[in-house]
Amino acid sequence: MKNIVITGSSRGIGYGLADAFLSRGCRVMISGRSQQSIDRAVKSLSAQYGQEKVQGFRCDVSNSEQVQGLWDATLKAWGCVDVWINNAGINHPMKALWELSAQTLQTVISTNLLGLAYCSQVAIKGMLKQGHGHVYNMEGHGSSGQILQGMTGYGTSKSGVRYLTKALIQETKGTTVKVSTLSPGMVVTKLVADQFREDPAGLERVKTVFNLFGDNVETVAPWLADRVLQNNRSGATIAWFTWSKMLWRLLTAFQPRDLFTLDGTSETYIGKFS
């Protein structure tokens, strides 16, 4: 039974990963910035998997002391951390860099890049002390160098994540700690809607792209969880959306897909995974 910490796991892809790991017999520490959101997630998951397998801890990853608190709480609960997934991240409205407020830009960079660095510091230091552990960093738009108008702040933070991860893989080489990458592709969650909060027409325009190349949390999270549990190699890149999948989607584009419809069984867009 592995003990897994997932930052930003009270909703979205993080919640989906927590659900998937729990269904595979792991214990999961839920984490997020909102205590209300954490309580709701823990209550829902505990009802399904048992209270002994799920705990929650409020943590803003841009606060290094709170990150240390998250590690300490997990050790107190279960004795060690086998896997730490740096998933916490936020986006900003689809605007040019100069149209964003300084506070918005600071929050995005502090959470997505500085927060991931804090988490990596704490997790790697703790894992070196306990003698084992695997850190996974979540990539996103910008990690592979792609540029999209209106995504400069977010893309810059994720570009930094790519460098940071590569550096950590080198720095932990020869130790008992491993560092790898998770890449979920285009997943439809509330994070997508938040980007277009001030531009609903823009959301309608990108729905075509998401319906072609995107996926639901329920599809992606279990696949990622399986590969994390199977992987024992540092420097691994676990990527859901590959070039072969992109080609297949293009070849089967005549088959309609609607990821933005809430039908009572798929709650990815708004609901338990939001």
| Low-pLDDT segments, ≥5 res | 262-274
CATH superfamily: NAD(P)-binding Rossmann-like Domain
CATH class: Alpha Beta
What do we call the CATH topology? Rossmann fold
CATH architecture, by name, is 3-Layer(aba) Sandwich
Please bin the fraction of helical residues.
40-55%
Number of helices: 9
Give the structural class. alpha/beta
Instruction: Tell me the number of structural domains.
Output: 1
Mean pLDDT: 86
Main beta sheet, described?
Answer: 7 strands, parallel
Give an account of the 3D structure:
Helix 3 packs parallel to helix 4 and helix 4 runs parallel beside helix 5. A seven-stranded parallel β-sheet has the order 3-2-1-4-5-6-7, sandwiched between helices. Helix 4 links the parallel strand 4 and strand 5. Helix content is 49%, strand content 13%. It has nine helices and seven strands. With 274 residues, the protein is α/β, with parallel strands linked by helices. The relative contact order is 0.13. The protein has one domain (3-187, 216-242): 3-Layer(aba) Sandwich (Rossmann fold).
Explain briefly what this protein structure is:
The protein has 274 residues and is α/β, with parallel strands linked by helices. The chain has helices at 12-23, 35-49, 64-78, 102-130, 152-171, 190-195, 200-213, 217-230, 243-251, and strands at 3-6, 27-32, 54-58, 83-86, 133-138, 177-183, 237-239.
List keywords for this structure.
274 residues; 7-stranded parallel β-sheet; disordered C terminus
